[in-house]
# Entry
Amino acid sequence: MMVTDLKTSFSSYLNQTSSAAALAVFRMMFGVLMMISMLRFWYKGWIFQLYIEPKHHFTFYGFEWIKPLGPYTYLLFIVAILSALLICIGLFYRGASMLFFLSFTYIELMDKTTYLNHYYFISLLSFLLIFLPANAYFSVDAWRKPSINSDKIPSWCTDSIRLLVVILYFYAGLAKLNSDWLFHALPMKIWLPAKNDIPLIGGLFNELWVAYLFSWIACLYDLSIAFLLLYKPTRKLAFLSVVTFHLLTSLLFPIGMFPYIMIGTAMIFFSTGFHHALIGKIAAILTISHSFLTPVRTYSFSKFQQNLATGGLLIFFSFQLLLPFRYLLYPGELFWTEEGYRFSWRVMLMEKMGAASFIVKDELGKTIEVDNKEFLTPQQEKMMATQPDMMLQYAHILKEHYEIAGFKNPEIYADTYVSLNGRIGKALIDPTVDLSKEKESFRPKYWILPFQDEIKGL
Amino acid sequence: MKNNKVLILFLLLAAMSSCVDSTEKITQPDVSNDRKEMLTFWVEELILPSYAEFDKDLQAMVISAEEFTTNPTEASLSAFRTSWTEAYISWQNVEMYEVGPAEKYTLRSFYNIYPADVAGIQNNINSGTANLNLPSAYAQQGFPALDFLLNGVAAQDENILAFYQDSEKGAQRLSYVNVLVSRMNTLLDQVISDWKGTAKADFISRTGLDIGSSTASLVNAYVLYYERHVRSGKFGIPSGATIASAGTPNPDKVEAYYKKDISGKLAKTAQLAFSNFFNGIANGKQGPSLKSYLNSIDAKDPSTGKLLSEYINEQFSIIENLVEALSDDYYYQIETDNDAMVKVYQEMQKAVRILKVDMTSAMSITITYTDNDGD
# Structure
């Protein structure tokens, strides 16, 4: 009985339609912000610095074949920028969104040193966009092919973007439900005093209660904001707090484009009226006829397309809901081992710093200490020094190098020292384990030493 | 719910904009987290007075060098040695400040790179036209080169004197001594006058913690100095404790190798200066320091509740006790009981990690130099 109820209500939901304007505005906003992001990345010299200059790269498990393309890496960025432009104006939309997803995701998978949750978010958004008719309204495609021009689309299209935002915020909030964050104000307590020389408000950051207040507000904000955006009576004030919150974090932390992307994305929750007014303004500037804006047509998928898309989305979102909890399958403290840490909306959650030196021994008794900067950039070394999977990859890079350099069956040992949220540092990796013999897998890494403390919570 | 939330946010913002300097800052030295105060104390009470003190000792050395080079006698040699020793000890109080002007002129590279390059020194004497600015000439000048020239050119003092009284080459040799001493003097003058010029105000004004800020630059210089020049330079390399030296002791790489009996005094002075800087101890005064800063931001292990500054000071006293028990002559120490040297290296390595990882993490400072253990 219940099941059939659910089924009928789901299929009637699938048949619901709503204005196409929100998704069209989102498409344009997304395209513009992506172009700015990529150009900014280029302008700052990061393409060279992060993808061309380093001698070695930390690839993702299963995606080892995704590597920078030397000077052609620039081409990859050009492809991403141009496809973002096409997405923005809605020309050759389906192809452009596919191309953007592929090029952007390729870039993000080239080196896990640069992993950021918001890049992952962008990859997921662009993946969704491939299947959504974001070009059905107010796009060049619709201009060229009036037969697709529609002012109504199935509601689930816009809602799937909203759902992804709900997941992002809510899971980011869940991740903050731990004893360090809530009851020790860590890492906020460490990060805020570093900004105590900001004019006017700097002095506040010396106060412990401010660190607690920030921690609790951030947690409550993440847990509730998406729902407050969904609920019409609270929407305006919720958006105002989105703007305040993200601008404040951008003032305090070096997080680049993330705040602007989140502020832009939050507009997807706005009412039809808002999006129509915005499109009306753009149309007026471009002197576009009123009839183009009012096609009075509903975009419809074929039955087959609809089933495929909704079935795919169900799988996609179930995966999204489960993936962040994969850490439960691993023993030990997640923040310490980082097994299952990425791709889980754990944003700015801990202060972790480390030092790692590697020792190479060979059969003939030759022993040397590796000079990390011969192999890694300072940024790579810094990230490697706290993350066991990167240490393992580095050990294999070293093994290969020293074999060629004439070491006979080199063994690689890691002498590590890591501090997490202010705890006095200790070894992260068992220094007696020859890492060159260990292989990457999804199995727990037995050579990670225990944390010897407990952070309670999720 | 919504109203409360927004209310909190607005109250927060309102509080931020209204709460300026109305509350008076408590000026107890051990609770201040005002980085401007700390930077000011560092420059005015630690860096500049240490340079002034060192300058005094260097001037004494300049004078006795002049006397020696105009009239190399047993008495002038002995006076020169004494003033050289005093200046070398005093140098240990400023070597760590390789930031601002000293960094600009790379003072340490021209003052204390050892072991001395004896062949290079002899070449320079013979050619008379050495370019001492080149990196290849670092070990041909400064205190280590003078160590060789004052104590190492011959075994007996009379032979050392003969080396300078030599009718053919004596003048050239004395002239090289003069070149080295006046070069040290010039470099120090530049550093001190830069500090007294715009460098001081500039240093105090960069109060952030990002790369390029004064606190971050100084902490980087401070930890680098300890890691490379105290831990490795004074202990690790000569004792063979670094992996790079593969367990083989190199007693000829100790600091002041030719004078021998002052290497312990130099290391003790350096260690004391290093921990005094951490604790903000300057000529009996105590002021805002890394310790007081860490305490004021409540840097402590959340598991044990122990202050990070306590961990650091405990490690410093372990090291001080070990160093205290060593001979003043590290060459002799390595030859007779090298394990004691190795032990110091190991404890210093622990201190390096606490400073480099725990302290910088607690302060939100990025270490921008990368480890380099080569020798």
